[in-house]
Structure formats: structure tokens, C-alpha cells
Amino acid sequence: MDTAALVAAVRDGELRLHELEDRADADAAAEARRRLLAEETGADLETVGAYAFDAADAESNIENAVGAAQVPMGVVGPVAIDGGAVDGERYLPLATTEGALVASVNRGCAAIGAAGGATARVLQSAMTRAPVFRVADVGEAGAVAAWVRDSFETLAAAAEATTSHGELREVTPYVVGDSVFLRFAYDTKDAMGMNMATIATEAAAEVVERETPAELVALSGNLCSDKKPAAVNSVEGRGRTVAADVEIPGDIVEDYFGTTPAAIVEANTRKNLVGSAKAGSLGFNAHAANTVAAAFLATGQDMAQVVEGANAITTAEVRDGGPASGASGASPDAETSGGALYASVTLASLEVGTVGGGTALPTQAEALEVVGVGGGGDPAGSNADALAEVIAAAALGGELSLLGALAADNLAGAHEELGR
Q1: Is 165 a catalytic site residue?
Q2: DSSP conformational letter for 270
Q3: Of residues 160, 167, 202, 415, which has the active-site annotation?
Q4: pLDDT (tens digit per residue) in 151-186
Q5: Which segments within 139-259 are labelled E, that is strand?
Q6: Tens of pLDDT along 242-266?
Q7: Active-site residue 415, yes or no?
Q8: Among 226, 266, 302, 335, which one carries the catalytic annotation?
């Protein structure tokens, strides 16, 4: 059917919007939806329809396709990283509509580079899924939890039979009255792994139901916890737990940020630590979500998981003779640039992958190639580890830049200068 016929079929009730691909190829179906929307809403969708890939390539990523949302993409770096999976300089594409963000992160990365680079490490890799089961009472719940602790090998065999890549690391039971939650944690290699973990956990849950009195209520019981702020992810981690740090001499701090290590430390302590604690925040950082979200959008990650990705703690201290903090009694204005600034950012639950999901889409795949992590790594998991380390180093740059701007009292001026 041609476009006009497809539009007429939807109007006449012969087809629903999601059935257009049954009568036409993906591009024609998307064009028909755009025409229908334009006629019914008066919107001009010419730019939405101007995309650089075949709609069929995105059929596993979107339903009722009408086109593509185009977001400006910039790049930061190169930043030198001494990592477990990265050794050397890397660029990181960032897609965002927030003016001054790329410039800010890039300034921080430049300061890191001037100091010799950042150190970064993936501390653990564990994608989780936590089904909830019903039992008769707490006695039965205790018995189920005990069986699970004694039967890891059985559960691992069932879970790993569903995947050629995933590896079950642990299963932790949690009991709340007559509910039993089992938090399964997997090494999903270069995949972000949410679907892998879900399918594997379903197979393991069948074993739990067969071998114990427990009855599955929901394959996800929210103790995973996916796409929601959650303390369990702060403590136990989810996806990649990754950290990056740097020590920057005082003269470099002065050159790049126009302030002192002590002033940045005080800003971090009062803002990121004390302020976040008073607010009851799960993230004790300046704006890690900014870098994480822009990197996710550029590289095809699941955008909703920025919720967990922003679960980060930023620390700062003066080393080599400087006071531990401007809060020690001396005014930051009285401090010299002597001493070095040590800063770190630890992201507890950064969920990233280099295969699967949106990573295969054309612009996202190109962005991953810029980072040097497209596709599966050798050994398996090394590309996703490298991506996590690069994002952590860039997030550290973003934290330094914003803290520097606040300490130097030039945040508003920077936005005004860039016309944002």
C-alpha cells in the first residue's frame, strides 16, 4: 500500500497505527504516521522525518515510529585515563541541549589532563533482578531463604542455561513478612544486561517454585532496583560500580578554575556532602547526572537508568601540606594555591553496555567507535568496563569544573557569557 492508502486505512478504522508495518515497509509506515499526525495536529514533521538510517534498523527499539529526535552532540577530551580497561587518551561524545555543559566538562577534563590524567577502575559488575515470592508465614519464608543460600549452584545452572554470556554472581534473599525477595546479580559482560538478567531470573524462579513452597508474584519486586532512586543500589551497586580520581597541583587548579584547592574542598563539603545530607539525597555530587545523561544519549544507553547512574559520591581534599578544608577556620580567600587538590567520583550503579539495546543504532554506534568501545570486547566485558571508566573520568571533570565555578563565584557568568 502507498502512503495515502495507509493513511486512509487508519482513518477508516481498517488499520491501527501499530499495524502499518503489516502492510508496508518500516520507512513507509513511519511516513504514513507523520502524514496522519501532520494532518490531524497541524504540526510540521519535516525535520522529524529527516533521519539518516533505515527505519527497519530501529524496529527493535521503537514502536509506532514516526522518525527521530535529533539532539546536538559535542565531544570532550581527549582525557588521559589509567584504568583497568582503558590505558591512554579517550574522547567522549556527549549529546545534550544544555548550553555550557560540554564546555564545563571539557574544562574539567583539560585540568585532569594537565595533571597527568585520571585513574579509573570498575570495582564490580552486577546487573540485578529481584523477583518477589509469596509464602504462608515467616517460618516458611525463613526456610525458603535458607534453601536459596544452600542452592546457589542449582539456581546458577538454571539461569545460565538461558544465556551464552551471562554469569550469575550471587543470590541474596530478603524477607518481609510473608514476602520473599531474591536479588539475583549477574555479570552480563559487554551487554547492559537487563533483558538477559530478566530471562535468566525467570528460569531460576521456576526452580524456586518447584523446590520450595514459594509462589512467584512478580518477576520484578522493585528490590532490583531498576529506574528508581534506591538506597540498595547505593550500597550494593548495580550494573558497573566505577570510580575515578585525580590529584591536581595547586597551580593547575588556579590556572584552570581561578581558585584554590581549599576553596573547592570547602564547596564540595558544604554543597555535595552537608547539603546533600540535609536534603536526604541519594546522590552526594554536584551534577554527575549531566555527564551520565549526555553520554547515555550519545552512546545508546537506556536513558531511564540515569536515575541510577546519578547515584554518585564526590569527595575532595587538600593534600601535600594544604589544610583539609576551607571550613577549618581560615577563609578560602586567605588560602594560597599551595598543596594539591585530590578529587574523586564514585558511581555506584552505572548501567552501560556496548552491545544490544540502542548501541547498534547508527549514530550511537559511531559514538561508541569514537570512544573506542564499539561492539563486544576481548575479553568479554572489557569494552563496557572501558566505557564506564571513560564516563567516570568525564563525570569527574564535570564535578571539578562546577565546583571550581562555584568556588570562584563565576557559575552565572559562565552561562551568561555563553548566552544560555
Answers
A1: no
A2: I
A3: 415
A4: 999 999 999 999 988 999 999 999 999 999 999 999
A5: 167-176, 179-187, 215-218, 239-249
A6: 999 999 999 999 999 999 999 999 9
A7: yes
A8: 302
